[in-house]
Amino acid sequence: MIESKSSEMSLIQDVVRILQSARQNAYRAVNTAMLEAYWQIGKRIVEEEQFGEIRAAYGEGIIKQLSKDLSREIGKGFSVANLENFRKSYLTFSDNQKSYAVRRELSWTHYRLIKV
């Protein structure tokens, strides 16, 4: 009976470790996918700004309107400040090939702390 309890506890501990590892892997995968999406959004914002007649004013207008549109279509998370952060992440890591490995290791919190 004692051996059975010990074996059962070992099984429970192993299953808990497996689930915790799977959850951590899922979190990393989602984080990586979202960071890539934010980088792509930042890239599109920068590309769009380059075609403006008056870049600074035009760029501000793009971000404000995009914030309104995305908030209406998708919901929270697309404030002007957040879109500016997406833009900054692209400008900071604009060389996609060389910086992909570095970008994967950072969380969104890290990105927001980066000053361009």
Automatic annotation (TrEMBL):
InterPro entries: PD-DEXK-like_domain, YhcG_N. It comes from the Bacteria. The lineage of its organism: Bacteria, Pseudomonadati, Bacteroidota, Cytophagia, Cytophagales. Residues 15-114 form the YhcG N-terminal domain. This is YhcG N-terminal domain-containing protein. Pfam families: DUF1016_N.
